[in-house]
Write a structure and sequence with these properties.
Nuclear Transport Factor 2, Chain: A, globular, 6-stranded mixed β-sheet, alpha+beta
């Protein structure tokens, strides 16, 4: 990935995490391709694959229903071409329980024209790298 591509990908990821932290569905939608597809570690128990801009909106609405607040932070980004892997920290507070969550996991992403096309969440860096063909 050229340095300029790395910077573009990092900027998109930072904007996406900021929008997620604000539970701002439209800001996340603006960073995604219309045919985006993803599975979230946060909603993994629901075994849902989200598709399209409406899927993004549904995902953010489900987070807002469950969590009082969310903080998402990209700790490290590895990228090449139209693919990236992010080590992230997800912190949140349950709306009903008040229980705070602090979790680290990896996301693998694919981009098209600077927008997110696909992402998946993985428990390990190796799994995330493999998912987008960036394994060592």
């Amino acid at each position: 990935m050229s340095q300029s591509n790395v910077e573009v990908v990092k900027a998109v990821i930072e904007r996406a995490y900021e929008a997620l932290s604000q539970l701002d569905a439209e800001a996340v939608v603006s960073l995604c391709e219309p045919d985006v597809e993803f599975r979230s570690a946060i909603a993994e128990a629901d075994d849902v694959t989200y598709r399209g801009h409406d899927g993004v909106r549904d995902f953010i609405a489900s987070l807002a229903e469950v969590f009082e607040w969310i903080r998402a932070e990209a700790l490290d980004v590895i990228g090449e071409g139209d693919r990236a892997v992010v080590c992230n920290r997800f912190r949140a507070c349950g709306r009903r329980s008040g229980v705070e969550v602090d979790q680290r996991f990896f996301q693998a992403l694919r981009f098209r024209d600077g927008n997110v096309l696909w992402w998946g969440s993985f428990p390990s860096k190796a799994d995330a790298l493999k998912a987008v063909g960036l394994e060592d």
